[in-house]
Write a structure and sequence with these properties.
- By secondary structure, this protein is an alpha/beta fold.
- 40% of the residues lie in helices and 20% in strands.
- The strands form two sheets. Strands 3-4-5-2-6-7-1-8 form an eight-stranded mixed beta sheet, covered by helices on one side. It has a seven-stranded mixed beta sheet with strand order 9-15-12-11-10-13-14, sandwiched between helices.
- α4 packs across α5 and α9 packs across α10.
- The chain is elongated and about 80 Å long.
- The C terminus is likely disordered.
């Protein structure tokens, strides 16, 4: 009998490495910050910035405040270990039916996170015998984790919690619009559509580029549903932790002097992105990104001009661009809309007419102006433009002087902080073109914007006449 008891005792010891010491009922696990100290007692979990993050994670868990959370922190501050690896396991221990999706810039990194999560879960929860792969494992109750890289599909599985950690690997990827578009498509078409009712999304990333996934979300209609926690390595004004300007985020690991050495070593541009979460784009010769602000509202009482720079080539060559600018009563300017495409003459004219109809419906009194090229062909094109917009307030503009000179008044207002962009998907393409002027491949948006500005500004606006053929 004693031998049988010894055998049972040895078997229980072997099993104990796979099973939690005490199986707790869902909701009886304790607070996340307490749980962290039990799971990894050798690490520090109560630095100030960590407690702020834990507070927001608790709100997310309890369904308080906004539905989703963005976290911007410098490297090597434990954000992935706490939020991506441990927080989902704690959620699984609270409710083993929770389904978690973890995404990263490639499958390898996503599986690295998942492997760490599974190792902790095995010590705390009974896992399924049937589904144990690192990219897709389950608890005995049917919850679990699915790991996926950017571009990977998640067909057939929903998520109660979605965590995206580092969807961009490097500056090279961040600077590629093709890659940024791919990340956005993956997020909107694959991840977002996997949300179960009540699902929360957490996005953790380095801000290499203003048009990254975080930037696009914050310019989208979904922006009000996101809480943003921005914790730079060196504090800026109005720091969320109450730090003095220049104070280090975690002096115990990275004191200020060490951070300044890192800044010298990697350069201010990389330090701004990696450590301060403030992407700095390459600046142009005439326009700079830092000059522009963004707005979601158009003030009452604005004057509007839609200026068209026309081309007639399909899928190649110059673009047809119609830039709509507004001038507020306090003499500030808003780029309200940019219509852009490479169309045939018929397609282009239909687009111009449709846009005029839309402008009148949305904004009321809009003056439409078309650029007139020199010579007799320009005169003929101007007459056709007027006929096309019969019934609208329309005129043409005989441009003079070189292009850079015509652009200077608009560039001066931009530099003075007097021009903002209405938040929209065209913003990034617009800024790309302006900041590459005059050396970029295209300058049609520059022409249309400066034309609209020149017609709105001061005396130039008064010079628009109702009779476009006066003086011919």
């Amino acid at each position: 009998m004693l031998g049988l008891l010894d055998k049972i005792d040895r078997q229980e010891k072997r099993l104990s490495k796979w099973l939690p010491a005490t199986v707790q009922e869902p909701g009886d696990v304790g607070e996340f910050y307490e749980w962290l100290g039990i799971i990894t007692p050798g690490w520090t979990w109560n630095w100030k910035y960590q407690t702020v993050i834990q507070k927001h994670l608790k709100n997310l868990t309890d369904g308080k405040g906004k539905k989703n959370l963005m976290l911007f922190l410098p490297p090597r501050h434990g954000k992935s270990e706490m939020v991506t690896v441990r927080y989902p396991v704690w959620r699984l221990e609270c409710n083993p039916e929770t389904r978690v999706i973890v995404g990263a810039y490639n499958q390898t990194l996503a599986e690295k996170f998942s492997r760490k999560m599974r190792k902790i879960a095995r010590e705390r929860l009974p896992l399924s015998d049937e589904r144990q792969a690192v990219q897709d494992w389950e608890t005995a109750q049917g919850g679990g984790v699915r790991a996926v890289g950017v571009g990977g599909g998640i067909t057939g599985q929903g998520g109660d919690l979605i965590i995206i950690d580092d969807p961009v690997k490097s500056r090279k990827e961040a600077n590629s619009k093709v890659y940024r578009d791919m990340v956005w498509d993956w997020y909107t078409d694959d991840l977002y559509t996997r949300k179960e009712p009540g699902c929360a999304i957490i996005l953790i990333m380095t801000r290499w580029h203003e048009d990254d996934l975080a930037g696009r979300i914050l310019r989208s209609e979904d922006a009000p549903n996101w809480e943003v926690i921005d914790l730079p390595a060196l504090a800026n004004k109005s720091d969320p932790l109450g730090r003095d300007v220049g104070e280090a985020l975690c002096p115990a690991r990275y004191p200020r002097d060490e951070l300044l050495k890192i800044q010298v070593a990697i350069g201010s541009r990389s330090f701004s992105a990696l450590y301060q979460q403030k992407p700095q784009e390459q600046e142009g010769d005439v326009f700079k990104r830092s000059w522009f602000t963004f707005t979601r509202e158009i003030p009452q009482g604005c004057q509007f001009v839609r200026y068209w720079d026309r081309a007639a080539t399909v899928d190649d060559g110059d673009y047809t661009v119609g830039a709509l600018l507004a001038k507020s009563q306090d003499a500030k300017y808003i780029v309200v809309d940019v219509v852009r495409g490479q169309w045939s003459t018929g397609e282009r004219d239909k687009k111009i007419r449709d846009t005029a109809e839309s402008d009148r419906t949305r904004y009321g009194a809009i003056r439409t102006v078309g650029e007139q090229e020199p010579g007799s062909s320009g005169v003929d094109a101007a007459k056709a433009f007027i006929r096309l917009l019969d019934g609208f307030s329309v005129t043409t503009d005989k441009v003079t002087g070189d292009k850079k000179t015509r652009v200077e008044p608009y560039a001066s207002q931009c530099e003075g902080g007097q021009v903002s962009l209405l938040v929209a998907q065209w913003n990034e393409d617009y800024l790309d073109e302006l900041t590459s002027f005059p050396n970029g491949t295209h300058d049609d948006q520059v022409d249309a914007s400066s034309g609209a500005y020149n017609k709105l500004a001061g005396a130039a606006y008064a010079e628009i006449v109702d009779d476009p053929f006066a003086g011919w």
